[in-house]
Amino acid sequence: MSASREAQIDIENLLRADEVHKDVYVNDHVFDLEMDRIFGHAWVYVGHDSQVPNAGDYWTTLIGKESVVMTRDKSGQIHVLFNRCPHKGARIAGDGCGHVKGLFRCPYHAWTFGLDGKLRGVPYSEGYQNTNFDLEDPRFSLKKVPRVECYRGFVFASLAEEGDSFEDFISGVKSSLDNFCDRAPLGKVRVVGGTFRVMQRSNWKVFFENLNDTGHPIATHESSYKAARQYANQELDGEMPFQLHIIDGNGEPPEFWANLDLHAFEFGHSYMTAIFKAPNDPLSQAYYASLASAKGEDSASEILSVSRHNTIIYPSCSPHTSFQQWRVIRPISVDKTLVEIFTFELEGAPPELLQRTFIYSNVVNSPSSIVMTDDVHVYAECQRGLTTQGGDWVSQHRKAGQDKSFEGADGGLIGEGSSELPIRNQFSAWKRYMLGERNQELRSPGS
Ligand code: FES
Ligand SMILES: [Fe+2]
Fold first, then answer.
1. Residue nearest atom 1 of ligand 1, based on CA coordinates
2. H or E segment at 49?
3. Ligand having the closest approach to the CA of 251
4. Do 70 and 46 form a contact (C-beta atoms < 8 A)?
5. Rounded to 10 degrees, what is the CA torsion of 186, 312, 164, 409?
6. What is the mean pLDDT of residues 197-219?
7. Please, what sign has the CA dihedral across residues 329, 333, 334, 336?
8. Is the predicted pLDDT of residue 6 greater than 80, yes or no?
9. Is the CB of 52 under 6 A from ligand 1?
10. Angle CA 442–310–44, to nearest 5
11. In this model, does residue 38 exceed pLDDT 70?
12. Residue with CA closest to ligand 1 atom 3
């Protein structure tokens, strides 16, 4: 971004304690600055190591606007490399997942690279004699993303050489990552099935704001939960099988949502307590038995007592610990956002549990879900409305000033279920990133 454009954006003037200016959603220059200041610095989710189980496997994705490749080498180590050939710049790996036999070969002139990105060979090598080219010079290898961390298989990376440590970054919501894995009797999870992809016609922050927004389900999802109830009443004598139960939950009354807890942490992270009670059907009992046999009854009960809906790991992903979903948020442009949905298997759990996970994925998160389409529709309506001259500010007033410090193990702030705390908290982190500040103690969101 040019200095003149940057100077036109006054970050402080875009934020109030309980409102944000619409430019944060619709201004291209703000988006460019976000790619630089937020996605150029934050720890961004790259993928799970089970997506590259064998040496030579790779997974291509985005960190901000940067195409990157996650690889596994022969020693088992994971690498995250910029997807850019040092010769003329071609991407050395296409989108999605793939496998190479020991070497990446650039599709253009066939320079070859090891799984760690090191240049191995160039055709017509005699042509490079007596030139400044040097096979051993790192600038002729694939460049590594500066900082990479893998926690329990979840790989995050930062484009910045220096900055907040991953440990500091993740501390508030580390318990969600632990619970995600601890629910597996063997303590490990892995990605299974394909990837759902949804291109949303809205700014990336609109999606994040929605994930812990309890004010919207009863209105936005009216058509889907009413259809589920109607079907149950007319066809199933009022019975609610799992498929309908997880749609029906969105129709809970305001008191229900108010009684949930919202927990917000440094770096814009948060989570909300679960909407759905853990089922107690034969499958759930068999799953509990598998967990108890591996870890003991006390541990199994403690693990399953951690019951959360969406966790937000700002600014790139959102795990759902109870139903083994993981959504990844990739901003494409100021008004376009790619959301990818991954489904995980709990190693050591009964195979039928995976079917339930797929049901959740299909019913709630897939592109053809009747629940997600409700959300995607209102996101696009927000984006269109924000471009009108109908007003400059976007409200975040619900329960503003009423959030409390939380003294539990995770620290942070806690808000009543209907609070817009998570949204204000995201903008607190947004402001810090955009101003280039290092992290400080969690302040009152919006301060
Ligand atoms: S661009 Fe990669 S080898 Fe030429
Ligand atoms: Fe929703």
1. 88
2. none
3. 2
4. yes
5. -70
6. 97
7. negative
8. no
9. no
10. 65
11. yes
12. 109
